Amino acid sequence: MNLTDEQKKIGQDNFRRVAGDLIQTNPDRRDFLEQVTLASAVGAAGFGAAYWGYGNKLDDRLRVGVIGTGDEGNVLIGALNPKVIEVKAIADIRPYSVHRAFYGDTYSPSSLAARPGLCSVYDYADRTAAEKEIDVYTDYNDLLERDDIEAVIIALPLWLHHEAAVRAMRAGKHVLTEKLMAWDVAQCKEMARVAKETGLLLATGHQRHYSVLYDNAVDTIRRGLIGDIHHIRAQWHRGNLPGNDSWQPPLPTEMLGPAEISKAESAAKRAGGDAGLRAWRDEHRLVRELAAWQRERDKPTTSAAKKEEWDLKIAQKRAQLEDISVDATEYGYEAGTLDGGYERSAMEELIRWRIWNRTGGGLMAELGSHQLDASGIFISSQFGEKQKVNPLSVVAVGGRHIFPHDRDADDHVYASYEYPGKGYFEDNNPKQGKLADPNKKVVVSYSSINGNGFGGYGEVVLGTKGTLILEREQDVMLYAGSKVDTKVKVDAKNGLVDSYETGGGYSPAAQAVTQAVSRGYTEEIEHWAVCIRDKAPAETLHCHPKVALADAVIALTTNVAIAENRRIEFDPAWFDPESDAVPAGRTPVKASAVKA
């Protein structure tokens, strides 16, 4: 990461060319990729489905309810394929989330691209037209009572995943829940047990399992081109600072007109001076933004097209303010006082759930789980097909280093993990479990911080012969040895070697590897739906309960290591859904005794 544009281009070209060359040695993949490329299917809907070997259209679409339509729920709505999924209902307690579920997030072009809304995805004229086919519920239990809904997508705050998933499965619904699987390991195991008992498919949204880019990176590792992995460096750095934190969105207040705002600001300044005025403006940020946007919209010089844009934004802002009507305590959210004396309302816990340990899992659950999942995929690829290798130990530190006492989740975490490397097990067979050389380990270093986004997010995989860099789930770069400024080619005997030979462009197969960049959201939902229709076994899912449990164990054990300031060795029983062993907290109960 932090490479020059020229170094990035060299690495991207290297990866395309080498991946394309490898495909030529695999007739099935070569024929498929050349076929879809020549048919102009690359980059179009359906490439991921064709790549992973499932259909991207169902004659009988899966009838789904979406539970939780906030930030991540809206991303999942934007990823739906209307040829596979028929949305019958949505459920959310916040008017703001329901509004965005239909119209998308109009605050910026980038947010609208990620969250286009149901009207756009399903080509409804407006919410009124959409609601003729899609029902809206506040209580998701009403949605679960519907016989015509076969499955649910759950994108609620983390602390509610277990409750909603268990209730859904008890109601006979298949489930796809956002990551992390659940708030603690006991809950994860109980969800896995209920899924097994009911025979329903439970998937978890770690989308890197459905990324074509990541799969081709894994293929490069599996073939030994970068040699033996001995270190992975991963990070997710963000520029969030006090007063400008994406996990601390503004809270709703009563709507006020321009005259009322001016009067209230004057009163706040008389009472508290400039500090009092700043505090009032911060508390009423949404009200002030709404007034400012309305003024811009009403200017005589504003074009008709611009007025339409402002109308969409203003409607969304009004919906955000309507959240004040929600009684958060009715849904289990609590007011509280932090150690530093900060008073948190139940509404704040609802809207800013990621920054509270009671409702979220902090940086490791929200961000680190993705990248430790990816690291595990890379390391496991050295042990043969469909092997899942778990870490041996973790040591970690963290804290609230830049934010005041307005949260209890850490804003910085740093962790190091020991994984078994190639040669650690006898016959390179993890299932056999006999050690060959305990020194053959891979260390994964991870950091997730706020306050400085330099380097963004991604993973650097260092092998004995070369290096793979994966950046922002969009680019993969490949380098021989430790150099980042030379072209590379594949030598049948020695793997990657430096070369200034550039060849004559890309084959169709090489182009296909990176032209259809998808983060995997669409593919994970499509495959889940197809598996349900095909009555496929749970293990057919790329992120079935045992895989999702492992990701949760790693993230949640890291939180324990930080809290207790100690090194923790992972117990293999923690990764077994049938075992009652957990790294912390209560032990799980049998499937028959699991209650939501």
From TrEMBL:
Family matches, as InterPro entries: Gfo/Idh/MocA-like_OxRdtase_N, Gfo/Idh/MocA_oxidrdct_glycsds, NAD(P)-bd_dom_sf
EC numbers for this chain: 1.1.99.28
Entry annotated with the keyword Oxidoreductase: yes
UniProt KW Oxidoreductase keyword: yes
Keywords for the protein's UniProt record, in alphabetical order: Oxidoreductase
Domain Gfo/Idh/MocA-like oxidoreductase N-terminal intervals: 63-206
A GO molecular function held by the record: glucose-fructose oxidoreductase activity
Source domain of life: Bacteria
Pfam families, per database record: GFO_IDH_MocA
Database matches in PANTHER family: BCDNA.GH03377, NADH-DEPENDENT DEHYDROGENASE-RELATED
Protein's name according to its UniProt entry: Glucose--fructose oxidoreductase
Native species: Botrimarina hoheduenensis
Gene symbol of the encoding locus: gfo_2
